[in-house]
Amino acid sequence: MNVIIPAAGIGSRLRPHTHTMPKSLLHVAGKPILGHILDTVTKLDPDGITIVTGFLGDKIQRYVRDHYDCPTRFVEQDELLGLAYAVSLALEGLDERPVLIILGDTIIETDMNAFVAAGENVLGVLPVDDPQRFGIANLDNGIVTRLVEKPESPESNLAIIGLYYVTDTVGLRDHIKRLIASGRMTRGEFQLTDALQSMIDHGIRFVGHPVEGWYDCGKRETLIATNRYLLEKNKPNHTREGSIIIAPTFIAPTAVVESSIIGPYVSISDRAVVKSSIVKNSIIGYEAEVRNAMLKDSLVGHRAVVFGDFRELNVGDSSEIGYS
């Protein structure tokens, strides 16, 4: 089995952080989003992993090579023309073995072995309260009958959550090629859902398989909420002499915390420094510095410096903000 991880999106909703860092490398619960994804898929022992990169793709390559020992190739996406286009680029260099496709900006909780065993072709789905915002799958006895991108009048509340397993790799490649050759876009992009619907229309069967959890990392508020959920699940319980640490809180071994109250629901990355501060429900990037500050619901970028009496911040990398 091959794994494809599309990770070329520019992450406009997470600016200013994504001006200097790919979205998939933003930290949540102690590691980059991509790290959580790779930890999951490498347990399947895939034959190979293809990561589709774009802006700042060299940083993704460096991170993967420094932290993972698995056969990985990187494909650059020259134009942001949609998920189907990204997958087509990845498929060009692959053989006919089955592929698992998982988006590079979301964290999915499910039994991956059960997922790939659910059928020859499988789509991950999850009930949502507002199906008009998502691609939606209509099912009949567990079999996908129709896929609709952000329907105005949805017939189902099962969102397509960005996890796909396809054994008919030849069929997937052919239908994506036909879609791109036709020039037919949905909302300005070549949508993977359109290619999959074409496969369904031609008699290729897909099973809709529910997942346990799907956690969006696409904007500041949801990134912080995902951080909170993962910390609550994993329950890290770190201590620092001279400070009060309220669990669950993650503090990297190389981080410095002095005379502070930290937590709950805080992630402090490698080589960050937090002194004489109160921090709650926030993410502090690597090599960031927070001094004499009170932070809540905040996202502090890598190497940013914050000092003074702030309450809620969204500070990009290498910034400095102070208050006196």
Task: Give structural notes.
By secondary structure, this protein is of the alpha/beta class. It contains seven helices and 27 strands. The protein has helices at about 35-40, 55-65, 85-90, 110-115, 170-180, 190-200, 220-235; strands at about 1-5, 25-30, 30, 50-55, 70-75, 100, 105-110, 120-125, 135-140, 145-150, 160-165, 205-210, 215, 245, 250, 255-260, 260, 265-270, 275, 280, 280-285, 290, 295, 300, 305, 315, 320. α3 packs across α6 (about 190-200). The radius of gyration is 21 Å and the shape is elongated.
Strand order within the widest beta sheet: 5-4-1-6-11-8-12
Largest sheet: 7 strands, mixed
CATH architecture of the largest domain: Alpha-Beta Complex
Tell me the CATH topology of the largest domain: Spore Coat Polysaccharide Biosynthesis Protein SpsA, Chain A
What is the number of helical segments per DSSP (H or I, 4+ residues)? 7
- Spans of 5+ residues with little confidence (pLDDT < 50)? none
Ends: how far apart? Answer: 57 Å
Give the number of domains: 2
**Any idea what the shape is?**
elongated
